[in-house]
Amino acid sequence: MTKKNRTWILRTVLIIGTIVSLYFVPWPIVKAWLTPLPDSIKEQVNKAADYGFDGIIVYVDTKGEMPEYYTSGYQNKESKSPVDPNSLFKIASIDKLYTAVAVTKLVDSGQLSLDNTLAAYYPELEDRIENADRITIRMLVKHRSGIPNFTNTENFWMNPPENSQQALERILDLPAEFDPDEEYEYSNTNYLLLSNLIEKVTGSSKFDYIKDEILDPLGLKNTFGSLNDVDIDRVLSGYYVGVKEDIKTTNYRSMLATAEDVGIFLRALNDGSLFYGEEQEIYSSLYKYNHTGLIPGYQSIARYHKDIDTVIIQFTNTTNFEGYNWNLSEVMYNRILKIVRKYI
User: What is the distance, to the nearest Å, from the Cα of residue 171 to the centroid of all Cα atoms in its chain?
Assistant: First the structure.
């Protein structure tokens, strides 16, 4: 083969490779990133439909200023009603922040020990959860237990468990993902076990304890333990790409709250006003100060930005676990953050 032919073949392969690679480029994300940044948060929020979101709520609280609310899209697609900024939203894994605070307060009061094992509190699970005699409460909080994640089990989202026991049963007798404290792996099972433990120790529901120790001191009246505790008309509709119906009545046992309530809680968590005595030191050794949430129909981002002393909460009510919806929600959030920073 001549040098000329080899060069021609190489160029052809490179061209074909380039064309093929372009097929896999996430163009919706690229387009969203490259679009010029608008001058205002409202203009950015108004682009929610371009990102594939049926509705969006954004709450911005900068220290020393009045909180601001931004919305676009539909509260409900069928009725075409506009999004209400005070809607209740399923906050999904953001509730881990509340659970971690509850554990912290119980540890500080001496009702829980971070170094006790899961088996010490639940001897009946010693033979059902691998390494239960070596997994500590600290490891559960920090996602270092190695216990499998029940939401990763087959058909979980299509056939959600009706209660915590059914959820737990999905992982009983399964092998551990890794030895205790050897790795980090996010697992909802850790926080299911912690939630059950809070109830065992306090003798009341986890949410009642959270209400007494967190919500009431902060004056939060628009945070609820489950879908069963709210007026369904207050809940923002939720949609999954490819499913026409509103899925807000599907109960994944998530806490619900307004963006304002989550924002007030997050600021108190980050500025330390939520804690007493040694509680903040304990919490800081255990868990993070910001979180996201994702269940069918609902994705949320709750972050405090220390450099600008600002809390930004974003709720979007359209999901697609197989698509780019989560990435696009992050793009939306980061563009809003850039606009906020631009004017502070």
Answer: 21
Q: Is the pTM of this model over 0.85?
A: yes
Between helix 188-202 and helix 95-108 the angle, nearest 10°, is 40
**Residue 7 pLDDT > 70, yes or no?**
no
C-alpha span between 250 and 13 (Å, rounded): 50
Q: Whole-angstrom Cα distance, residue 102 to residue 104? A: 5
Tracing tokens 């609820």 back to the chain, one arrives at 224
User: What are 223's two structure tokens?
Assistant: 């945070």
258 and 236 Cβ atoms separated by less than 8 Å: no
Contact 260, 222 (CB under 8 A): yes
Residue type, 291: H
Q: Is 74 helix (H, G, I), strand (E, B) or coil?
A: strand
| pLDDT band, residue 8 (cuts 50/70/90) | low
Inter-CA distances, 143 with 57, 114, 187, 274, 343, Å:
30, 13, 6, 23, 38
Paired strand residues for 76 = 81
